[in-house]
Amino acid sequence: MIKVSNLDKSFGDKKILNDINFTLKSGEILSIVGDSGSGKTTLSKIILGLIKPDRGQIIYEGVDLVNLGKKDFKKYRKDIQIISQNPSSFFDPSMKLGRSVIEPLKNFKLKLDDEKLKDLIEEFKLDEKVLARYPHQVSGGEIQRLSIIRALLLEPKILILDEPTSMLDISVQAQILDILKRIQVDKNMSYIFISHDMEVVEIFSDRVLNLKNSKLI
Amino acid sequence: MKEYIIEKVKSIFIVLVGISLLSFLLGVVSPGDPAELSLSKYGYSPTPQEIEARRVEMGLDKPIHIQYINWVKNILKGDFGKSFSTKENVTDMIIRKAPVTFKLAMYSIVITSVFGISLGVIAGINKNKPIDNLIKLITNILFSLPTFWLALLFILIFSEKLGILPTSGDGGFKYMIMPAVSLSLITMSTTAMVMRSSMIQEFGKQYYTFAKAKGISKYDLYIKNVLPNAILPVLTILGNFFGSILGGSAVVETIFALSGIGSYAVESVFSKDFPYLQAYVLLTGLAFVLVTSLVDILIIIINPKIRLKGDIYE
Amino acid sequence: MGDIIFEDFNVNFETRKQNVKSVRDMNLTIKSHKITGIVGESGCGKSVLSLSILGLLPDYAKTSGNIYYDNKDITALANRVREKYLGREFGYISQNPSESLSPIRKIRKQFYESLDLVEKNKAEIEKKSIEILKELGFEKPLEVLDKYPFQLSGGQQQRVLTGIAISSSPRWIFADEPTKGLDENIKKDSLELFKKLRSFGIDSTLVITHDIDFAKNLCDEVMVMYSGQIVEMGIDVLDNPKHPYTKGFIESMPSKGMKIMEGKTLSPTEDIRGCRFANRCGCKTKRCDLESPKLYNYENSQVRCFLYDKGE
Amino acid sequence: MNKILGKLSIIVLIIILLVSIFANIISPYDPNFQDKENRLSGFTQEHKLGTDPLGRDMLSRVIYGGRSSILIGVLATLVSMTIGSGMGIISGYFGGRLDKFITSITNIFQALPQMAFTIAIAGVLGPGIKNLILALVISSWAGFSRIVRAEVLKVKEEPYIEAMVYLGSSDLSIILFHIIPNIMPNIIILLTTRIGRSLLSIAALSFLGLGVQPPNPDWSVMINDARLYYRSYPYLIVVPGFSIFITILSINTLGDYLRDIFDIRSEEII
């Protein structure tokens, strides 16, 4: 699916990522583990094209995403989405959740399929009422479900899961990971699962890469 | 730290160049011919030849950027030119008048900080209690009073009715009470409001709960733990208020007939004494920049996070 | 003596729009000379419960009922009197160590301030604080005292907080979510730290946590809290859970296979007649919707579930 | 408490506005009509609030007295806000060199004490409503820019703005749909407070003879006109001064009320 090679990134004197190489295969869940400060979030931002690496390549569908300009990148943007650890801060507090969830569709000139949204809401065991609420009015589990729905509406091929449950309660964590797993099987998606919790990683993923001292081992 | 200082010095330099440009431009857009204005006296109109000669003498025949450079060069030598109306050196006038304004500003900033901070602290500690509501009411009222009106009312009450304070002129401490108080009430009440809300903001933080749970005295809790944190935003604002006070002094000096740089600035507008007006704008700006920069330094000294960046316990 | 006894205790947070009932009809004894853990997920009311013992709830919290300590109803005391319990009787270790110290004061001042309650001699204070810090594993205590909080790591900050809390020798220590946000390896240190408290002469501790492993390894007695109520308490609750919620909660841990417990907690604004867990419960009967269960004795636990009602 | 005061202030402001708009209908006299027989009359049946040194009816002049200042104050603040917010948003959102440039310019305009700067500009430009507005705008736009920039920076740091990038939003739509709605409460409060403050500046300038010009019936001009007489006839300054005070007090109270509604700390915006 995606091949990352020789990735380096420093901020100031601090080397955050040092020669990162890995390949994500189609339909697999690849875990990347590491302590806080090992550059996990930086890595996901680079794959998303939010920051440029100092060196290295990210090959997706035969194209090196690193060297793409803003306009060219847009074509691939929708294919790679992310679910983050603090979902409530990933929704505009002044906007109702229902609007936030469908807003990205128009950015990619996609039509809203009401049936599909309804199905997703049902599948995620959400109450339709949450769409009429604001981010601070719903629980962490609910908003994380919505952020997954928001990403899925774009039909991405790759999901980066950046500690998607580390701010959630254990019972909610189990619920969310279960949903993610089901979707991955149903749609044959590829996940990059970033986590610090080895126990979760062992249950959830097919393959594990350890990011230590800014290197993969 | 070093980078921070270099950045800071750079931005101060840009600001200084900027305000000198603005002051210079004031002279450029001012109505009337400077050469003519500088020659005319009461009952005397200069001849065209005289004006032309003066124009060359003042360098007004040169391109505008050269004029600016010359103007700045003169200022750096301490020469702001000659007053159009009194024909005196502007520098001498400023030196004579500045101490009055300086004294007024100092009194006002002291009143602003002492009363503003204390009232704010008292109100914040007693949030939503009667004393807080009273302080809120008073500050809200003071905050909306036009300075010049208040000054006139003071004169009516304390000079006319009670006869305890002198109305005008420059004498000792007594002469400064009414001007300084009327000049500082708005800034004082704003300081109190900001101090209050800054205290309350700190009460919501975890360190406050922890400090309170330690069982320490109210004094230790509020004054030693909360106040130093809560006062940081207030310091910045006090720096800004120095500017408000410096500018507002023009009004107060006019009413109380204090011969400071502000009251003459108002006069200079009417007498078209633009060299003075330019000097006034530039120098008050300079003083303001100086004070706000000092406040920035003070905040760095108080806040160890910037000062000790990188010094971590292993 | 020294037990903390709740009697019909409630905490409400009333805002313009709603009334959040955080702690509901609490009747509970937290015994002294023990490490007690209150375990629960976010929003269950566990932190509010500990803050209400300390009297540190925010202004807009309304409480009813009583809390007895040493046979005195501490909720009836004047604020001035109640505040005297802080530091001297009740020590508190707050969550988020990185935000729990004043950011612009040196550790020294924040440490001494607390010791000052029990010791007036300056030299003695310094000696004692160095002793405590050494005991807590700092090799250079003097250097630590001269640091600002942001110059320490999360684990170090937590040790400093603990040192401050125990320095005035309170009878009780209350710790709020001590492992929240800490890296795995620091969590282990944290466990050691709390086990050590006894060696400082503090044997009554209440730990509020969502971390089941931490509670299991540390506590003599565990209380599980759900939606404002204690649903189960006893000495082997986490090894041998009885309440359907406790079971589901434990089974959703990754190490236990992450089994899913469906549904979500009832909103704290919602009042119902029956059991507050009934909407998610697999063992639900008719009775669960009609009647609110009490805590029933079963083996060596007390369980708030009709399954364990032997009709006593 | 704040709620009652807030609503009261709205009512007072509406009354002040209505009185100013319909001044020609309400006022008993032409504000510039000089009743030469009745100078400094004190409160009488014909002149409820007395007359001024030229025999003009005080009540009529007070009724007219808010017109020019309020109009100038509101206009000047709106213009400053538009310029300042625009600059602030561009500078805060795009960052980089543009930000450095705009910030430098704002710093320069903020480095001059506002009143001193306004006096100088008003003095150099000469009297007139347009010039007065211009002077106020030049000396106050930078304040808006600085605060709006800071607010934009705060919002921009929020993860949901970054999220909009990989969710495909353009800069323009991020600014329009996510930045502006989130800083709007602050801008509204800022606008309210600043209208109050520019009314104070206008009043001071008019009093100094640099703002609204006589014989225009204006509260501050009335106070200035009375400077030789007010010691013997305090009512000459009390009534117009009180009108300024009530207007500004209502605006500030409204600002407080809005702050409460939007739940915003006061030191963020002054």
Primary descriptors:
heterotetramer; A: 217 residues; alpha/beta; Rossmann fold; 4-stranded antiparallel β-sheet; 7 helices; 10 strands; B: 314 residues; mainly alpha; MetI-like fold; 13 helices
Could you characterize what this model shows?
The complex is a heterotetramer of chains A (217), B (314), C (312) and D (270). By secondary structure, chain A is of the alpha/beta class. Chain A has one domain: P-loop containing nucleotide triphosphate hydrolases (Rossmann fold). Chain A has seven helices and ten strands. Chain A has helices at residues 40-47, 70-77, 97-107, 114-123, 140-153, 170-187, 198-204; strands at residues 2-11, 14-24, 29-33, 55-60, 63-64, 80-83, 158-162, 190-195, 207-212, 215-216. In chain A, the strands form two sheets. Chain A has a six-stranded mixed beta sheet with strand order 6-7-8-3-9-10, with helices on both faces. In chain A, strands 2-1-4-5 form a four-stranded antiparallel beta sheet, covered by helices on one side. The longest helix of chain A has 18 residues, at 170-187. The mean pLDDT of chain A is 89. Chain B is mostly helical and 314 residues long. Chain B has a domain at 98-303: MetI-like fold (Orthogonal Bundle), CATH 1.10.3720.10. Chain B is built from 13 helices and no strands. Chain B has helices at 2-29, 34-39, 48-57, 64-76, 90-125, 130-143, 147-161, 173-203, 206-213, 218-255, 261-270, 274-302, 304-307. The mean pLDDT of chain B is 90. Chain D is mostly helical and 270 residues long. Chain D has eleven helices and no strands. Chain D is elongated and about 80 Å long. Chain A binds chain C through residues 35-36, 125, 139-142, 169-175, 177-178, 196-197, 199-200, 202-203, and chain C through 41-43, 183-184, 210, 212, 248-249, 252-255, 257-264.
Question: What's this model, at a glance?
Answer:
Helices cover 77% and strands 0% of the residues of chain B. Chain B contains 13 helices and no strands.
Could you give the topology of this structure?
The complex is a heterotetramer of chains A (217), B (314), C (312) and D (270).
Chain B: H1 2-29, H2 34-39, H3 48-57, H4 64-76, H5 90-125, H6 130-143, H7 147-161, H8 173-203, H9 206-213, H10 218-255, H11 261-270, H12 274-302, H13 304-307
Helix pairs in contact in B: 1-12, 5-6, 5-8, 5-10, 6-8, 7-8, 7-10, 8-10, 10-11, 10-12, 11-12
Chain C: E1 4-14, E2 19-30, E3 35-39, H1 46-54, E4 61-69, E5 72-73, H2 79-82, E6 90-93, H3 107-115, H4 122-135, H5 141-145, H6 154-167, E7 172-176, H7 184-196, E8 204-209, H8 212-218, E9 221-226, E10 229-234, H9 244-251, H10 286-290, E11 296-298, E12 301-303
Parallel strand pairs in C: 3-8, 3-9, 6-7, 7-8
Antiparallel strand pairs in C: 1-2, 1-4, 4-5, 9-10, 10-12, 11-12
Chain D: H1 2-21, H2 23-26, H3 58-64, H4 67-94, H5 96-110, H6 114-125, H7 129-157, H8 159-166, H9 171-208, H10 219-225, H11 235-262
Helix pairs in contact in D: 1-11, 4-5, 4-7, 4-9, 5-7, 6-7, 7-9, 9-10, 9-11, 10-11
